[in-house]
């Protein structure tokens, strides 16, 4: 029964990722697309976590940590690009 619940949750999380991909493609504005990309990152973390529980393995926990860090940095970089026009500022002497 627990395995069935995990498989259903994997299916629902996958559907949520597909919906977010649609928002990335059709989003009316750039901030909507950035929020959808962040949502995809969060859903991927959840997908890997549920899959790790389903497989009864801790081997995927490093991937979860790495994906969380990359999703956070990506969201910050996109937001900074929208706000200022550049993602990395360089000091000119």
From TrEMBL:
InterPro entries: MrpF/PhaF-like. It is a multi-pass membrane protein. Keywords: Antiport, Cell membrane, Ion transport, Membrane, Transmembrane, Transmembrane helix, Transport. It comes from the Bacteria. Signal peptide: none annotated. The keyword Amino-acid biosynthesis does not apply. Its main location: membrane. The chain crosses the membrane at residues 6-25, 34-54, 60-82. It is found in: Cell membrane. The keyword Ion transport applies. Belongs to the CPA3 antiporters (TC 2.A.63) subunit F family. This is Multicomponent Na+:H+ antiporter subunit F. It comes from Geomicrobium sediminis.
